[in-house]
Amino acid sequence: ELVGQLFDVTSPNNFPDFTGIITYETDFKLPQASKYILNLGEVGETAVVYINGEKAAHLICNPYTADITDFVKSGDNKIKVEVANSMVYSHRDEFSKQVMAPRSGLLGLVKIECYQN
Fold first, then answer.
1. What are phi and psi of 112, to 5 degrees?
2. How far is CA 87 from CA 90, 92, 101, in A?
3. What are the residues whose beta carbons fall under 8 Å from the beta carbon of 117, sequence distance 6 or more?
4. Within 13 Å and on the Cβ side, how many CA atoms surround 84?
5. Could you tell me if 102 and 44 are in contact, meaning their C-beta atoms sit under 8 angstroms apart?
6. How would you write the pLDDT of the chain (117 residues) with one tens digit per residue?
7. 111-115 and 35-39: which strand pairing?
8. Interior/surface letters 18-28, b for 16+ CB within 10 angstroms, e for the rest
9. Would you say 83 and 47 are in contact if contact means Cβ atoms under 8 Å apart?
10. Three-state secondary structure along the chain?
11. Is the bond leading into 45 cis (omega within 30 degrees of zero)?
12. Which residues on neighbouring strands pair with residue 112, listed in sequence order?
């Protein structure tokens, strides 16, 4: 299923028992700039970012930001983000059944900030 928005993968209405890696991919265009900073917004829980086929960042906590200047170009680009969550969703013990698990996936707001010298 293809969706047009980011969402909590492990919410009760989606896949509450999902444990693993969720992959997001899209194409995007950038204007000419001297520096580009990627901000993934909210992530549940870790993210590996690939820009134009190259590993650009491995992000494990807030802020989920990375300097991607060396990986992008003005014009057309591709991004792939692999988000991994913990095993708490598929392997709940008696204690973890009582604790609210964090949201999973790439939850946004994803943006690229462009800077000029």
1. -120, 125
2. 6, 8, 10
3. 34
4. 11
5. yes
6. 444 568 888 888 888 888 889 999 999 999 999 999 999 999 999 999 999 999 999 999 999 999 999 999 999 999 999 999 877 666 666 766 666 677 888 998 999 999 998
7. antiparallel
8. eeeebebeeee
9. yes
10. CCCCCCCCCCCCCCCCCCCCEEEEEEEEEECCCCEEEEECEEEECEEEEEECCEEEEEECCCCCEEECCCCCCCEEEEEEEEEECCHHHCCCCCCHHHCCCCCCEEEECCEEEEECC
11. yes
12. 38
Structure tokens at 2: 């293809």
- What CA–CA distances, in Å, run from 111 to 42, 61, 66, 79? 11, 17, 11, 12
